[in-house]
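In the current project phase, we have settled on a layout for protein records. A sample record is reproduced below.
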Amino acid sequence: MKQTDIYTEALTCLRSILLADHPEFQNWIDWLERDIEDWTQRREVAHHLRAYGGMGSFNDLPSMRGNHDYIFGFLKSVCYTFGHLYGKREGISPEALMEECLHDVEQAAYHPHKPLNRAIAQHLMQGDLQENLDRL
């Protein structure tokens, strides 16, 4: 298993799904690229959080194809939860917080596809979700 930053992997997968399914939304593809850069270079999440809420937000994107739609929603939930809690919880590393957020979203009752949730979470933890997006 390779060492991975789960938040970066999740953001990268959001960008990959959007690029594959809706390349016409270059503004959101660029937005996610900046989110990845902000996190990997400065451990900042504020830009990503500004994508949510309001008309024309990240939440208003059209459906993705096949399971990409479900995976995209799952990843948005994980990334938003992490971004919202990051910096508010003292004494917990970003890695541990992301694992906690991932576990919480994976176990949430409103997600009806438990086996798919487990598979998404497992691939995120292993750092190979991007390579497996079309197999889920």
